[in-house]
Amino acid sequence: MLNKTYYAGQDIDAPCGRCKQETRHRVMTVTNGLPEKLICAACNSIHKFRSEKPKGRRRSARPAAPRRRGQPPAPRASTS
Ligand SMILES: [Zn+2]
Description:
It is built from no helices and four strands. It is mostly beta strands. It has a domain of 38 residues. It binds zinc ion (ZN). The site of zinc ion (ZN) has 8 residues, from loops. The site of zinc ion has 8 residues, from loops.
């Protein structure tokens, strides 16, 4: 896990509930090292920070994520 440092006034990419997509946000307040309030640069709505990838997933109604076209391409190993 990456330890990012957040600070008020920082621009970060985060999912916006209103825009329904990941947009640029500015951090307004930081609590315990995590952004608490963000303002969306696209729609100017202020909302709480939501972690991009929820962890500790409980059993949900969803089956395993459907795979798209087999496996993702392996990262290129540098040959030089
Ligand atoms: Zn937005």
